[in-house]
């Protein structure tokens, strides 16, 4: 498989939003399933693309997955501090998993961070059960930063996101 990573085209936003939503739903990552309010955020690729860089992995004309790269804060950053880029909403179509698309997307974000003046680290948040993603991050040199773990929904005390950092 020849995986190409490139910026998402607006004509791909709906398809990427559905891949992202189905990945989170299929992996049981949304506490309220199909009624989870975060599902709308996952599907709204156009909103992400207006505030950050959305990258896609493609094989020919087949969309495999995508990721949101936040180069230096802004409305899409959850945990990035000055001098840090952030990776958000990494998702790969279930049928395309295990072929390297997720790792290629993360590598592309790291490359973009290295090319960003003043960027000294890449950070991300991940759910505790995203074991395949954790393996990718750790293989690429990311380390856990438990002191930065956080809860995106404070009224629900059972949602704690783990954080990782890669120093550039």
Care to describe what's here?
The protein is an alpha+beta fold and 168 residues long. The chain has five helices and seven strands. It has helices at 13-26, 38-43, 45-51, 101-114, 131-139, and strands at residues 4-7, 53-59, 62-70, 84-92, 121-127, 143-144, 161-167. Strands 1-2-3-4-5-7-6 form a seven-stranded mixed sheet. The radius of gyration is 15 Å and the shape is globular. The mean pLDDT is 93.
Provide the fold topology.
Elements (H helix, E strand, L loop, with lengths): L3 E4 L5 H14 L11 H6 L1 H7 L1 E7 L2 E9 L13 E9 L8 H14 L6 E7 L3 H9 L3 E2 L16 E7 L1
Parallel strand pairs: 4-5
Antiparallel strand pairs: 1-2, 2-3, 3-4, 5-7, 6-7
List keywords for this structure.
seven-stranded mixed beta sheet; alpha+beta; 5 helices; globular; single chain; 168 residues
- As laid out across the biggest beta sheet, the strand order is 1-2-3-4-5-7-6
The SSE string, one letter per element, is EHHHEEEHEHEE
Put simply, the count of helices is 5
Give the tally of β-strands: 7
